[in-house]
Amino acid sequence: MKVVVIGSGYVGLVTGCCLAEAGNQVVCVDHDAGKVAALRAGRLPFHEPGLDELLAAQLQAGRLSFETSIARAMRHAAVAFLAVGTPSQTNGSANLENLLHCVHELADTAFEDCVIVVKSTVPIGTGDHIEKLLNAKHGAAAGQPRVRVASNPEFLAEGRAIRDFRHPSRIVVGANDEGSAQALAELYAPFVERGASLMFMDRRSAEFAKYACNAMLAARISMVNELAGLAGSLGAGMEAVCRVLKSDPRIGAGYLQPGAGYGGSCLPKDLRALIRSAQEAGEPAYMLRSVQRVNRLQGRKLFDAIRDHFGGGLRQRRIAIWGLSFKPGTDDVRSAPSLALIHALLGAGATVSAYDPVAMNAARAALGDTATVFGESALNVCEEADALVLMTEWEEFKAPDFEAVAARLRGGVVFDARGIYRPGLLRRHGLQCHRLGERPAGLQAGKAVRAPLAPNPQAEPRTPG
Ligand SMILES: NC(=O)c1ccc[n+]([C@@H]2O[C@H](COP(=O)([O-])OP(=O)(O)OC[C@H]3O[C@@H](n4cnc5c(N)ncnc54)[C@H](O)[C@@H]3O)[C@@H](O)[C@H]2O)c1
Protein backbone atom coordinates (compact mmCIF):
# COMPACT_ATOMS: atom_id res chain seq x y z
CA MET A 1 0.00 0.00 0.00
CA LYS A 2 1.26 3.53 -0.64
CA VAL A 3 1.21 5.42 2.63
CA VAL A 4 1.94 9.05 3.42
CA VAL A 5 2.75 10.21 6.97
CA ILE A 6 2.60 13.97 7.51
CA GLY A 7 4.74 15.08 10.48
CA SER A 8 8.00 13.16 11.08
CA GLY A 9 8.36 13.52 14.84
CA TYR A 10 8.33 10.89 17.60
CA VAL A 11 5.02 9.46 16.36
CA GLY A 12 5.14 10.11 12.60
CA LEU A 13 8.64 8.76 12.06
CA VAL A 14 8.05 5.60 14.07
CA THR A 15 4.75 5.07 12.21
CA GLY A 16 6.45 5.59 8.84
CA CYS A 17 9.41 3.30 9.59
CA CYS A 18 7.24 0.50 11.04
CA LEU A 19 4.71 0.63 8.18
CA ALA A 20 7.60 0.53 5.68
CA GLU A 21 9.00 -2.48 7.55
CA ALA A 22 5.58 -4.15 7.13
CA GLY A 23 6.07 -3.90 3.32
CA ASN A 24 4.34 -0.62 2.49
CA GLN A 25 5.77 2.13 0.31
CA VAL A 26 5.95 5.07 2.70
CA VAL A 27 6.61 8.77 2.18
CA CYS A 28 7.14 10.79 5.36
CA VAL A 29 6.56 14.53 5.12
CA ASP A 30 7.83 17.29 7.36
CA HIS A 31 7.87 21.05 6.85
CA ASP A 32 11.26 21.25 8.57
CA ALA A 33 13.65 21.04 5.60
CA GLY A 34 16.67 20.45 7.89
CA LYS A 35 14.94 17.48 9.50
CA VAL A 36 14.01 16.03 6.11
CA ALA A 37 17.60 16.40 4.86
CA ALA A 38 18.94 14.65 7.98
CA LEU A 39 16.41 11.83 7.68
CA ARG A 40 17.22 11.31 4.00
CA ALA A 41 20.85 10.91 5.09
CA GLY A 42 19.78 8.39 7.74
CA ARG A 43 20.31 10.73 10.70
CA LEU A 44 17.72 10.82 13.49
CA PRO A 45 16.61 14.21 14.83
CA PHE A 46 15.82 12.75 18.27
CA HIS A 47 16.64 9.77 20.46
CA GLU A 48 14.50 6.65 20.22
CA PRO A 49 16.07 3.22 20.86
CA GLY A 50 16.37 1.10 17.69
CA LEU A 51 14.94 3.74 15.38
CA ASP A 52 18.25 4.54 13.68
CA GLU A 53 18.70 0.92 12.56
CA LEU A 54 15.10 0.68 11.39
CA LEU A 55 15.39 3.94 9.46
CA ALA A 56 18.62 2.80 7.78
CA ALA A 57 17.11 -0.57 6.83
CA GLN A 58 13.97 0.97 5.30
CA LEU A 59 15.93 3.61 3.37
CA GLN A 60 18.21 0.86 2.10
CA ALA A 61 15.23 -1.29 1.09
CA GLY A 62 13.81 1.66 -0.88
CA ARG A 63 10.47 1.50 0.94
CA LEU A 64 10.87 4.80 2.78
CA SER A 65 11.47 8.32 1.49
CA PHE A 66 11.15 11.86 2.83
CA GLU A 67 9.49 14.96 1.42
CA THR A 68 8.88 18.54 2.42
CA SER A 69 5.90 18.86 0.08
CA ILE A 70 2.52 17.31 0.84
CA ALA A 71 1.52 17.70 -2.83
CA ARG A 72 4.50 15.68 -4.09
CA ALA A 73 4.03 12.99 -1.44
CA MET A 74 0.30 12.51 -2.06
CA ARG A 75 0.59 11.15 -5.61
CA HIS A 76 -1.04 7.67 -5.63
CA ALA A 77 -1.41 7.59 -1.81
CA ALA A 78 -4.03 5.15 -0.51
CA VAL A 79 -3.76 6.19 3.14
CA ALA A 80 -2.38 9.49 4.50
CA PHE A 81 -1.73 9.91 8.23
CA LEU A 82 -1.71 13.28 9.94
CA ALA A 83 0.84 13.02 12.78
CA VAL A 84 1.85 16.61 13.47
CA GLY A 85 2.09 17.98 17.00
CA THR A 86 -0.96 19.31 18.85
CA PRO A 87 0.58 21.26 21.76
CA SER A 88 -1.33 23.20 24.42
CA GLN A 89 -2.54 26.74 23.87
CA THR A 90 -2.58 29.16 26.80
CA ASN A 91 -6.26 28.40 27.46
CA GLY A 92 -5.46 24.68 27.64
CA SER A 93 -7.05 23.65 24.36
CA ALA A 94 -5.08 21.73 21.75
CA ASN A 95 -3.39 23.96 19.23
CA LEU A 96 -4.57 22.65 15.85
CA GLU A 97 -2.81 25.30 13.78
CA ASN A 98 -0.23 22.93 12.24
CA LEU A 99 -2.79 20.21 11.70
CA LEU A 100 -5.24 22.53 9.95
CA HIS A 101 -2.43 23.99 7.88
CA CYS A 102 -1.79 20.47 6.56
CA VAL A 103 -5.50 19.94 5.96
CA HIS A 104 -5.72 23.13 3.87
CA GLU A 105 -2.69 22.00 1.91
CA LEU A 106 -4.33 18.62 1.36
CA ALA A 107 -7.52 20.34 0.21
CA ASP A 108 -5.49 22.16 -2.46
CA THR A 109 -3.73 18.98 -3.56
CA ALA A 110 -4.89 16.64 -6.29
CA PHE A 111 -4.94 13.09 -4.92
CA GLU A 112 -6.74 9.92 -5.78
CA ASP A 113 -9.08 7.90 -3.59
CA CYS A 114 -7.23 8.19 -0.28
CA VAL A 115 -8.29 7.80 3.33
CA ILE A 116 -7.06 10.64 5.52
CA VAL A 117 -6.24 9.30 8.99
CA VAL A 118 -5.79 11.53 12.02
CA LYS A 119 -3.11 10.01 14.26
CA SER A 120 -2.39 13.19 16.22
CA THR A 121 -4.26 13.49 19.50
CA VAL A 122 -7.12 15.86 18.74
CA PRO A 123 -10.26 17.12 20.51
CA ILE A 124 -13.45 15.19 19.92
CA GLY A 125 -15.10 16.31 16.70
CA THR A 126 -11.86 17.32 14.93
CA GLY A 127 -12.31 14.49 12.40
CA ASP A 128 -15.79 15.81 11.53
CA HIS A 129 -14.35 19.27 11.03
CA ILE A 130 -11.47 18.04 8.85
CA GLU A 131 -13.82 15.95 6.69
CA LYS A 132 -16.03 19.00 6.13
CA LEU A 133 -13.05 21.21 5.24
CA LEU A 134 -11.63 18.69 2.80
CA ASN A 135 -14.92 18.03 1.06
CA ALA A 136 -15.78 21.71 0.80
CA LYS A 137 -12.75 22.14 -1.45
CA HIS A 138 -10.99 18.97 -2.60
CA GLY A 139 -14.07 16.72 -2.63
CA ALA A 140 -16.13 19.38 -4.38
CA ALA A 141 -13.70 19.63 -7.32
CA ALA A 142 -14.90 17.96 -10.52
CA GLY A 143 -13.95 14.29 -10.75
CA GLN A 144 -12.66 14.05 -7.17
CA PRO A 145 -14.13 11.34 -4.93
CA ARG A 146 -15.55 12.31 -1.56
CA VAL A 147 -12.74 12.46 1.00
CA ARG A 148 -13.08 10.07 3.98
CA VAL A 149 -11.46 10.84 7.30
CA ALA A 150 -10.71 8.24 9.97
CA SER A 151 -9.25 8.46 13.47
CA ASN A 152 -6.41 6.17 14.52
CA PRO A 153 -5.02 7.53 17.78
CA GLU A 154 -1.53 6.44 18.77
CA PHE A 155 -0.70 4.76 22.08
CA LEU A 156 3.05 4.18 21.72
CA ALA A 157 5.32 5.27 24.54
CA GLU A 158 8.62 7.01 23.85
CA GLY A 159 11.62 4.91 24.78
CA ARG A 160 9.93 1.73 23.60
CA ALA A 161 8.06 3.18 20.62
CA ILE A 162 9.13 0.60 18.04
CA ARG A 163 8.17 -2.33 20.23
CA ASP A 164 4.84 -0.67 21.00
CA PHE A 165 4.12 -0.01 17.31
CA ARG A 166 5.16 -3.49 16.20
CA HIS A 167 3.22 -5.20 18.98
CA PRO A 168 0.47 -2.82 20.06
CA SER A 169 -1.86 -3.81 22.88
CA ARG A 170 -4.67 -2.65 20.57
CA ILE A 171 -5.16 -0.61 17.41
CA VAL A 172 -8.08 1.78 17.64
CA VAL A 173 -9.83 2.69 14.39
CA GLY A 174 -12.57 5.29 14.41
CA ALA A 175 -14.35 5.27 11.08
CA ASN A 176 -17.78 6.46 10.07
CA ASP A 177 -17.67 4.63 6.71
CA GLU A 178 -16.98 1.09 5.62
CA GLY A 179 -14.26 2.03 3.09
CA SER A 180 -11.87 3.70 5.53
CA ALA A 181 -12.37 0.93 8.09
CA GLN A 182 -11.47 -1.61 5.39
CA ALA A 183 -8.40 0.33 4.23
CA LEU A 184 -7.06 0.48 7.79
CA ALA A 185 -7.90 -3.19 8.42
CA GLU A 186 -5.82 -4.06 5.33
CA LEU A 187 -2.93 -1.82 6.36
CA TYR A 188 -2.82 -3.26 9.88
CA ALA A 189 -3.38 -6.90 8.83
CA PRO A 190 0.30 -7.88 9.43
CA PHE A 191 0.09 -6.46 12.96
CA VAL A 192 -3.16 -8.31 13.64
CA GLU A 193 -1.53 -11.54 12.41
CA ARG A 194 1.11 -10.97 15.10
CA GLY A 195 -1.59 -10.76 17.77
CA ALA A 196 -2.76 -7.13 17.90
CA SER A 197 -6.47 -6.56 18.26
CA LEU A 198 -8.20 -4.06 16.01
CA MET A 199 -10.95 -2.13 17.74
CA PHE A 200 -13.43 -0.47 15.40
CA MET A 201 -15.70 2.30 16.57
CA ASP A 202 -17.08 5.60 15.41
CA ARG A 203 -14.68 8.46 14.90
CA ARG A 204 -15.62 10.52 17.96
CA SER A 205 -15.30 7.53 20.28
CA ALA A 206 -11.80 6.83 18.95
CA GLU A 207 -10.78 10.45 19.49
CA PHE A 208 -12.17 10.33 23.02
CA ALA A 209 -10.58 6.94 23.81
CA LYS A 210 -7.11 8.47 23.51
CA TYR A 211 -7.93 11.23 26.00
CA ALA A 212 -9.69 8.74 28.29
CA CYS A 213 -6.57 6.51 28.45
CA ASN A 214 -4.28 9.40 29.29
CA ALA A 215 -6.76 10.72 31.87
CA MET A 216 -6.82 7.29 33.58
CA LEU A 217 -3.03 7.03 33.64
CA ALA A 218 -2.63 10.55 34.98
CA ALA A 219 -5.27 9.82 37.63
CA ARG A 220 -3.36 6.76 38.85
CA ILE A 221 -0.16 8.77 39.12
CA SER A 222 -1.84 11.60 41.04
CA MET A 223 -3.65 9.13 43.28
CA VAL A 224 -0.48 7.26 44.25
CA ASN A 225 1.31 10.57 44.81
CA GLU A 226 -1.47 11.84 47.05
CA LEU A 227 -1.52 8.55 48.97
CA ALA A 228 2.25 8.74 49.36
CA GLY A 229 2.00 12.21 50.90
CA LEU A 230 -0.70 11.00 53.24
CA ALA A 231 1.31 7.91 54.17
CA GLY A 232 4.25 10.10 55.10
CA SER A 233 2.09 12.33 57.31
CA LEU A 234 0.38 9.40 59.03
CA GLY A 235 3.54 7.46 59.70
CA ALA A 236 2.99 4.68 57.17
CA GLY A 237 5.62 3.47 54.68
CA MET A 238 4.45 3.95 51.09
CA GLU A 239 6.77 1.29 49.71
CA ALA A 240 4.99 -1.39 51.72
CA VAL A 241 1.61 0.11 50.86
CA CYS A 242 2.49 0.05 47.15
CA ARG A 243 3.35 -3.65 47.36
CA VAL A 244 -0.13 -4.29 48.71
CA LEU A 245 -1.77 -2.12 46.03
CA LYS A 246 0.16 -3.79 43.20
CA SER A 247 -0.74 -7.28 44.37
CA ASP A 248 -4.47 -6.57 44.02
CA PRO A 249 -5.57 -7.77 40.57
CA ARG A 250 -8.47 -5.32 40.61
CA ILE A 251 -5.98 -2.45 40.90
CA GLY A 252 -3.09 -3.75 38.79
CA ALA A 253 0.60 -3.02 39.13
CA GLY A 254 1.25 -0.20 36.66
CA TYR A 255 1.66 3.49 37.38
CA LEU A 256 1.87 3.03 41.13
CA GLN A 257 5.26 4.54 41.88
CA PRO A 258 5.22 7.80 43.82
CA GLY A 259 7.40 10.40 42.16
CA ALA A 260 7.73 14.02 41.15
CA GLY A 261 4.50 13.96 39.14
CA TYR A 262 3.73 13.11 35.53
CA GLY A 263 5.31 15.06 32.70
CA GLY A 264 6.14 14.55 29.05
CA SER A 265 4.63 15.56 25.77
CA CYS A 266 1.25 13.89 26.29
CA LEU A 267 -0.28 13.57 29.77
CA PRO A 268 -0.09 17.24 30.85
CA LYS A 269 -1.29 18.66 27.54
CA ASP A 270 -3.97 16.02 26.98
CA LEU A 271 -5.37 16.57 30.47
CA ARG A 272 -5.48 20.30 29.83
CA ALA A 273 -7.21 19.80 26.47
CA LEU A 274 -9.76 17.40 27.95
CA ILE A 275 -10.56 19.80 30.78
CA ARG A 276 -11.00 22.57 28.21
CA SER A 277 -13.34 20.36 26.15
CA ALA A 278 -15.29 19.55 29.33
CA GLN A 279 -15.58 23.25 30.09
CA GLU A 280 -16.88 23.95 26.58
CA ALA A 281 -19.41 21.15 27.01
CA GLY A 282 -20.54 22.60 30.37
CA GLU A 283 -19.17 19.63 32.33
CA PRO A 284 -17.44 20.35 35.67
CA ALA A 285 -14.73 17.62 35.29
CA TYR A 286 -14.03 17.62 39.05
CA MET A 287 -11.79 14.54 38.91
CA LEU A 288 -9.72 15.72 35.97
CA ARG A 289 -9.12 19.08 37.62
CA SER A 290 -8.06 17.40 40.87
CA VAL A 291 -5.67 15.09 39.02
CA GLN A 292 -4.05 18.13 37.46
CA ARG A 293 -3.93 20.03 40.75
CA VAL A 294 -2.32 17.15 42.64
CA ASN A 295 0.26 16.86 39.89
CA ARG A 296 1.18 20.53 40.11
CA LEU A 297 1.53 20.27 43.89
CA GLN A 298 3.68 17.17 43.61
CA GLY A 299 6.45 18.98 41.74
CA ARG A 300 6.26 21.70 44.36
CA LYS A 301 6.55 19.14 47.19
CA LEU A 302 9.91 17.96 45.91
CA PHE A 303 11.20 21.52 45.78
CA ASP A 304 9.83 22.21 49.29
CA ALA A 305 11.53 19.07 50.63
CA ILE A 306 14.89 20.24 49.26
CA ARG A 307 14.40 23.79 50.52
CA ASP A 308 13.26 22.61 53.96
CA HIS A 309 16.28 20.33 54.24
CA PHE A 310 18.46 23.42 53.96
CA GLY A 311 16.46 25.30 56.56
CA GLY A 312 14.35 27.26 54.10
CA GLY A 313 17.12 28.92 52.10
CA LEU A 314 18.82 27.75 48.92
CA ARG A 315 21.01 30.76 48.18
CA GLN A 316 24.58 29.66 47.42
CA ARG A 317 23.52 26.00 47.51
CA ARG A 318 24.65 23.83 44.63
CA ILE A 319 22.19 21.14 43.59
CA ALA A 320 23.16 18.28 41.29
CA ILE A 321 20.45 16.78 39.08
CA TRP A 322 20.58 13.30 37.58
CA GLY A 323 18.19 12.94 34.65
CA LEU A 324 16.49 15.61 32.54
CA SER A 325 14.21 13.74 30.15
CA PHE A 326 10.70 13.14 31.47
CA LYS A 327 11.46 9.43 31.60
CA PRO A 328 14.28 7.08 30.62
CA GLY A 329 14.70 5.97 27.00
CA THR A 330 13.95 9.33 25.42
CA ASP A 331 15.52 12.76 25.01
CA ASP A 332 12.08 14.37 25.23
CA VAL A 333 12.03 17.10 27.87
CA ARG A 334 8.61 18.54 27.05
CA SER A 335 6.93 19.31 30.41
CA ALA A 336 9.64 17.30 32.18
CA PRO A 337 9.40 17.67 36.00
CA SER A 338 13.20 18.17 36.01
CA LEU A 339 12.87 21.46 34.14
CA ALA A 340 10.23 22.79 36.54
CA LEU A 341 12.47 21.86 39.46
CA ILE A 342 15.50 23.53 37.88
CA HIS A 343 13.54 26.75 37.31
CA ALA A 344 12.35 26.68 40.95
CA LEU A 345 15.86 26.02 42.29
CA LEU A 346 17.43 28.77 40.20
CA GLY A 347 14.60 31.11 41.22
CA ALA A 348 15.44 30.42 44.89
CA GLY A 349 19.08 31.38 44.35
CA ALA A 350 20.60 27.89 44.07
CA THR A 351 23.03 26.88 41.36
CA VAL A 352 22.27 23.74 39.38
CA SER A 353 24.59 21.23 37.75
CA ALA A 354 22.76 18.67 35.66
CA TYR A 355 23.56 15.51 33.76
CA ASP A 356 21.52 13.24 31.49
CA PRO A 357 22.89 10.49 29.24
CA VAL A 358 20.89 11.60 26.16
CA ALA A 359 18.73 14.65 26.85
CA MET A 360 21.38 17.34 27.47
CA ASN A 361 20.94 19.05 24.10
CA ALA A 362 17.16 19.05 24.34
CA ALA A 363 17.37 20.38 27.91
CA ARG A 364 19.89 23.04 26.91
CA ALA A 365 17.49 24.24 24.21
CA ALA A 366 14.48 24.14 26.55
CA LEU A 367 16.24 25.92 29.44
CA GLY A 368 17.65 28.64 27.19
CA ASP A 369 20.06 31.00 28.86
CA THR A 370 19.41 29.97 32.45
CA ALA A 371 22.50 29.49 34.59
CA THR A 372 22.25 25.69 34.56
CA VAL A 373 25.63 23.98 34.31
CA PHE A 374 25.66 20.78 32.27
CA GLY A 375 28.20 18.22 33.49
CA GLU A 376 30.12 15.62 31.55
CA SER A 377 29.17 12.70 33.73
CA ALA A 378 26.99 11.65 36.62
CA LEU A 379 29.88 11.88 39.08
CA ASN A 380 31.17 15.12 37.64
CA VAL A 381 27.96 17.02 38.56
CA CYS A 382 28.20 15.80 42.16
CA GLU A 383 31.52 17.62 42.73
CA GLU A 384 31.01 20.07 45.59
CA ALA A 385 27.23 19.81 45.34
CA ASP A 386 25.15 20.21 48.51
CA ALA A 387 22.55 17.69 47.38
CA LEU A 388 21.86 15.25 44.56
CA VAL A 389 18.36 14.88 43.09
CA LEU A 390 17.52 11.82 41.02
CA MET A 391 14.85 12.85 38.49
CA THR A 392 14.98 10.17 35.76
CA GLU A 393 15.67 6.50 36.43
CA TRP A 394 18.15 5.90 33.60
CA GLU A 395 19.93 2.55 33.83
CA GLU A 396 23.27 4.18 34.73
CA PHE A 397 21.70 5.87 37.77
CA LYS A 398 20.18 2.69 39.19
CA ALA A 399 23.23 1.25 40.91
CA PRO A 400 25.83 4.00 40.95
CA ASP A 401 29.09 3.93 42.85
CA PHE A 402 27.71 5.50 46.04
CA GLU A 403 31.18 5.54 47.53
CA ALA A 404 32.30 7.87 44.75
CA VAL A 405 29.10 9.91 45.03
CA ALA A 406 29.61 10.35 48.77
CA ALA A 407 33.24 11.40 48.21
CA ARG A 408 32.10 14.22 45.90
CA LEU A 409 28.84 15.39 47.46
CA ARG A 410 29.54 18.14 49.93
CA GLY A 411 26.09 17.87 51.52
CA GLY A 412 25.77 14.09 51.67
CA VAL A 413 22.07 14.10 50.87
CA VAL A 414 20.21 12.42 48.00
CA PHE A 415 16.61 13.21 47.02
CA ASP A 416 15.25 10.20 45.19
CA ALA A 417 12.25 11.43 43.19
CA ARG A 418 11.79 8.01 41.52
CA GLY A 419 11.87 5.83 44.60
CA ILE A 420 14.59 3.50 43.31
CA TYR A 421 17.25 3.71 46.02
CA ARG A 422 17.39 1.73 49.26
CA PRO A 423 17.90 4.31 52.04
CA GLY A 424 19.76 1.70 54.11
CA LEU A 425 22.35 1.17 51.38
CA LEU A 426 22.92 4.89 51.03
CA ARG A 427 23.24 5.25 54.79
CA ARG A 428 26.05 2.71 54.73
CA HIS A 429 27.91 5.11 52.42
CA GLY A 430 27.23 8.04 54.70
CA LEU A 431 24.47 9.42 52.51
CA GLN A 432 21.07 10.54 53.67
CA CYS A 433 18.26 9.48 51.32
CA HIS A 434 14.94 11.33 51.03
CA ARG A 435 12.10 9.75 49.10
CA LEU A 436 8.70 11.26 48.47
CA GLY A 437 6.13 9.55 50.66
CA GLU A 438 8.65 8.66 53.31
CA ARG A 439 7.62 9.25 56.88
CA PRO A 440 9.29 12.37 58.25
CA ALA A 441 12.02 11.81 60.84
CA GLY A 442 10.58 11.80 64.33
CA LEU A 443 7.25 10.25 63.43
CA GLN A 444 7.11 6.81 65.04
CA ALA A 445 5.84 4.02 62.86
CA GLY A 446 4.77 0.59 64.01
CA LYS A 447 7.62 -1.90 64.16
CA ALA A 448 7.59 -4.20 61.14
CA VAL A 449 9.25 -7.57 60.92
CA ARG A 450 9.56 -8.81 57.38
CA ALA A 451 11.68 -10.86 55.03
CA PRO A 452 14.05 -8.95 52.68
CA LEU A 453 12.30 -7.33 49.71
CA ALA A 454 11.92 -9.57 46.69
CA PRO A 455 11.93 -7.86 43.29
CA ASN A 456 8.42 -7.21 41.99
CA PRO A 457 7.67 -9.86 39.35
CA GLN A 458 5.30 -7.51 37.52
CA ALA A 459 7.34 -5.00 35.54
CA GLU A 460 6.28 -1.43 36.05
CA PRO A 461 5.12 0.13 32.75
CA ARG A 462 6.60 3.51 32.09
CA THR A 463 4.83 6.80 31.60
CA PRO A 464 3.38 6.94 28.08
CA GLY A 465 3.65 9.54 25.43
N1 LIG B 1 5.17 11.61 21.49
C1 LIG B 1 4.40 10.62 21.92
O1 LIG B 1 4.84 9.76 22.68
C2 LIG B 1 2.97 10.51 21.48
C3 LIG B 1 2.24 9.34 21.77
C4 LIG B 1 0.92 9.25 21.34
C5 LIG B 1 0.34 10.32 20.65
N2 LIG B 1 1.06 11.45 20.40
C6 LIG B 1 0.43 12.52 19.64
O2 LIG B 1 0.95 12.48 18.32
C7 LIG B 1 1.06 13.80 17.79
C8 LIG B 1 2.50 14.06 17.35
O3 LIG B 1 3.33 14.02 18.50
P1 LIG B 1 4.92 13.97 18.38
O4 LIG B 1 5.42 13.75 19.75
O5 LIG B 1 5.31 13.05 17.29
O6 LIG B 1 5.22 15.48 17.93
P2 LIG B 1 6.60 16.04 17.38
O7 LIG B 1 6.62 17.47 17.75
O8 LIG B 1 7.72 15.15 17.78
O9 LIG B 1 6.46 15.89 15.80
C9 LIG B 1 5.62 16.66 15.02
C10 LIG B 1 6.28 16.85 13.67
O10 LIG B 1 5.36 17.52 12.82
C11 LIG B 1 6.07 18.44 12.02
N3 LIG B 1 5.15 19.45 11.52
C12 LIG B 1 4.53 20.43 12.22
N4 LIG B 1 3.75 21.16 11.40
C13 LIG B 1 3.87 20.62 10.17
C14 LIG B 1 3.32 20.96 8.91
N5 LIG B 1 2.50 21.99 8.77
N6 LIG B 1 3.65 20.20 7.84
C15 LIG B 1 4.50 19.17 7.99
N7 LIG B 1 5.08 18.81 9.16
C16 LIG B 1 4.76 19.53 10.24
C17 LIG B 1 7.14 18.98 12.97
O11 LIG B 1 8.22 19.57 12.27
C18 LIG B 1 7.54 17.73 13.73
O12 LIG B 1 8.62 17.06 13.10
C19 LIG B 1 0.58 14.74 18.89
O13 LIG B 1 -0.79 15.01 18.69
C20 LIG B 1 0.75 13.91 20.15
O14 LIG B 1 -0.13 14.29 21.17
C21 LIG B 1 2.37 11.56 20.79
Full CATH superfamily name of the largest domain: NAD(P)-binding Rossmann-like Domain
Number of E-state strands: 14
Architecture per CATH nomenclature, i.e. the level-2 architecture of the largest domain: 3-Layer(aba) Sandwich
- Decide which structural class fits the backbone: alpha/beta
Q: Count of DSSP helices?
A: 19
Reading side by side through the largest sheet, how are the strands ordered? 3-2-1-4-5-6
What is the arithmetic mean of pLDDT? 92
Q: How much helical structure, as a percent, in the residues?
A: 40-55%
CATH topology of the largest domain: the name is Rossmann fold
* Morphology: globular
Portion of residues in beta strands equals: 5-15%
Rg, alpha carbons? 24 Å
Chemical compounds bound to the protein? nicotinamide-adenine-dinucleotide
CATH class of the largest domain: Alpha Beta
Main sheet, how many strands, which sense, barrel?
A: 6 strands, parallel
